[in-house]
Write a structure and sequence with these properties.
about 400 residues, alpha+beta, 5-stranded mixed β-sheet, 4-stranded antiparallel β-sheet, about 35% helix, about 20% strand, globular
Length: about 400
């Protein structure tokens, strides 16, 4: 085998998808001990914790497949190209494929990085589909460049260095997020239990608007390279707006969505799919903007409530759990929060002076976060550059010379 060897993924790995035991049969789920992974569980390079478990009966009498430790998990539905390596044996739902490589040909870590480098290419395969997805055949037919094992290890070592820089910045940002959440709890307590007996109001009583948008006719193919921002769920993260993959529409498209124009100080909340409940404030840098149907605009009555306060309430741990409970209620196969459910959300209302005091402290923390976020973006850009060089053979040449 030489360094230019190219194989299809199915020639170097076993590729198969997961499944979901019937939700109508509690014996498949109650007191389960077998990890059952979903896309939202794929939070890092390695995963060993699932949010749900199935029973032995659920495993035996469904199309669920057991994936062994070292298997690469790859999302193929809705959110395409999320990737992680299993550190334990486990099962997945049908939105995730398991890739079990022949380690005599390719290491799990090398293949992990290689597939990571193909994310944009794989996402292009899913464009134009009503529910963004690829099938197993598409995945199996991806081509993989395979150098010698020793050279795979060298490439992985270099990529791990850039990854460590990213993790360091992420840790610093996480520490600031934890400081913010700690400050919120110290000042206001649990927003769900309301252990400080604050006044409570429904969300509809403290807002001027609760609404979501739509995708312009033609879907992704109708997006522009510049113009008016179209915010999608992939841009909305808890306490953070991600600019990567921000879509744009023209004036005519925007006019059809003028009822969901986004303004500064609006709160964005994902209301469908795997990213449901994620929330952040609108950054003024993206305006003018609209939202698609997967994102809700929450516009507060600023005379009676502080937007920074409510934004942090939405991202607090217990409130997030509460939103997820709503999104998955009724045995829904797809997570969703309706407009009526949003209207009835109970929001604790401390005195506005206390909310404003919290907002001042938070904005000082946010200024530090902004600097770290810019640095993180630079490190991520470096990592992507190294990925592309590695699999074009340029980094390989640097390693071997």
């Amino acid at each position: 085998m030489n360094k230019n060897d190219v194989r299809k993924l199915m020639e170097i790995a076993e590729v198969s998808a997961g499944g979901t035991p019937s939700r109508r049969k509690p014996e498949y789920w109650e007191n389960g001990t077998i990890p059952w992974f979903k896309i939202r569980d794929m939070k890092g390079k390695y995963i060993n914790e699932s949010s749900e478990f199935i029973t032995e009966l659920g495993f035996q009498y469904s199309n669920v497949k057991m994936f062994s430790k070292g298997t690469i998990l790859y999302s193929i539905f809705a959110t395409i190209g999320d990737i992680a390596i299993l550190e334990i044996d486990g099962t997945t739902n049908q939105a995730i494929a398991g890739i079990n490589p022949d380690t005599s040909i390719v290491t799990s870590e090398y293949l992990y990085y290689y597939l990571q480098s193909l994310k944009d290419e794989v996402n292009a395969l899913g464009r134009g589909v009503a529910q963004n997805n690829i099938n197993l055949t598409m995945l199996k037919n991806l081509t993989v460049v395979i150098p010698k094992i020793v050279d795979q290890d060298s490439i992985v070592s270099i990529l791990k260095i850039s990854e460590s820089l990213i993790k360091n910045r992420q840790s610093q940002l996480k520490a600031l997020d934890e400081l913010s959440q700690s400050l919120f709890l110290e000042m206001f307590g649990d927003p769900v239990k309301n252990n400080q007996s604050w006044r409570v109001a429904n969300l509809e009583d403290i807002t001027n608007k609760i609404g979501s948008g739509a995708t312009p006719r033609g879907g992704k193919e109708a997006y522009k390279t510049e113009g008016i921002s179209l915010i999608r769920s992939m841009n909305v993260h808890n306490g953070l707006f991600k600019y990567k993959d921000l879509a744009f529409i023209d004036e005519n498209q925007a006019k059809k969505l003028e009822n969901v124009e986004v303004f500064e100080n609006d709160i964005l909340l994902n209301i469908t799919g795997a990213s449901v409940a994620r929330s952040c404030l609108v950054p003024k840098e993206i305006l003018p903007a609209r939202v698609n149907q997967h994102v809700s605009i929450i516009r507060l009555d600023s005379d009676n409530v502080n937007n920074w306060y409510v934004s942090y309430l939405f991202t607090s741990e217990n409130f997030q759990h509460s939103l997820w409970k709503i999104a998955t209620s009724g045995g829904a196969t797809r997570e969703a929060i309706t407009k009526d459910q949003l209207k009835k959300l109970e929001i604790i209302l401390p005195p506005i002076t206390l909310q404003n005091e919290f907002a001042e402290k938070i904005q000082a923390i946010e200024a530090q976060k902004k600097q770290l976020t810019q640095s993180l973006a630079q490190y991520e850009e470096l990592h992507q550059s190294l990925l592309q060089k590695a699999f074009r053979g340029e980094l390989f040449q640097d390693v071997t010379n």
